[in-house]
Design brief:
Layout: H1 2-12, E1 16-20, E2 23-28, E3 31-34, E4 43-45, H2 48-54, E5 60-66, E6 69-74, E7 86-91, E8 103-104, H3 105-114, H4 120-129, E9 131-134, E10 138-142, E11 147-150, E12 155-157, E13 167-169, E14 183-190, E15 198-203, H5 209-224, E16 230-231
Parallel strand pairs: 4-7, 5-16
Antiparallel strand pairs: 1-2, 2-3, 5-6, 6-7, 8-15, 9-10, 9-12, 10-11, 13-14, 14-15
């Protein structure tokens, strides 16, 4: 009955099926692909705490796919075709700073305050960016809390604020239960007499932070779920 239903659906969609070694394959626009047996729907959550609440048991293990995805999967193969069941997937979702893209001063200040762990370095950058004179547009005096604007001409700094470059920052890029990994960025300001100043951060660590994040996720899970097999 199931086979007949599949064949009817394939016929209506313009696809055909064939059986190879007792397994049904679909021959469609994307080529020949196996038709997987019915499985329970995978639960999707957004936190590591949700995995702890799920409490993986015997026959289940954790697979840290990357810095923002962890799956609870079956330890043994689910069938003779060596597929595994995925019971639960935790996916980190949050706004992320757009590195390599220039922001205007106001949006840069907002993004730096809302998308990064605040520390002495973010304070220095905010002090620098919040005191930019944009000649031809206005004079920005913004410490992130209050703002004064005066008409001026040319781009200059209200005061000299030393900021190391590259800078070490901790953007929110992975699960909130762990410490956000720090990485280095090149900080740049550009502008001219006809344009408002623009600010940008460029990644400068070869994305090594992803490996740090995976290591931190594994450490958190090992502490909260002792005895559970974890693959990272």
């Amino acid at each position: 009955m199931i086979k007949e239903g599949i064949e009817k659906i394939l016929a209506l969609s313009g696809s055909t099926s064939q059986i190879i070694n007792d397994r049904t394959y679909e021959n469609g626009p994307k080529g020949i692909i196996p038709i997987l047996p019915p499985k329970a729907e995978t639960l999707t959550i957004n936190t590591l705490t949700g995995i702890k609440d799920y409490d993986p048991g015997a026959g289940e293990m954790l697979h840290i796919l990357d810095h923002k995805t962890v799956n609870v999967i079956s330890e043994d193969y689910a069938d003779r075709w060596l597929t595994r069941n995925t019971y639960l997937t935790a996916v980190h979702e949050s706004p992320v700073f757009k590195f390599g893209q220039y922001y205007d001063v106001e949006m840069f200040i907002i993004a730096l305050q809302s998308l990064f762990v605040q520390d002495d370095i973010t304070a220095l950058i905010l002090k620098l960016v919040g005191n930019i004179k944009d000649e031809g547009v206005s004079n920005f005096c913004d410490d992130g809390v209050t703002q004064q604007v005066k008409a001026k001409t040319g781009i200059s700094l209200v005061s000299n604020v030393p900021v190391p470059n590259p800078v070490t920052l901790r953007p929110y890029r992975t699960f909130m239960e762990i410490q956000q990994p720090a990485s280095t960025f090149v900080f740049r300001i550009k502008g001219n007499k006809d344009e408002a100043p623009l600010c940008a951060l460029f990644e400068a660590d070869g994305r090594m932070w992803r490996l740090k994040a995976i290591k931190e996720i594994k450490s958190w899970l090992e502490f909260e779920l002792p005895g559970v097999k974890i693959i990272a």
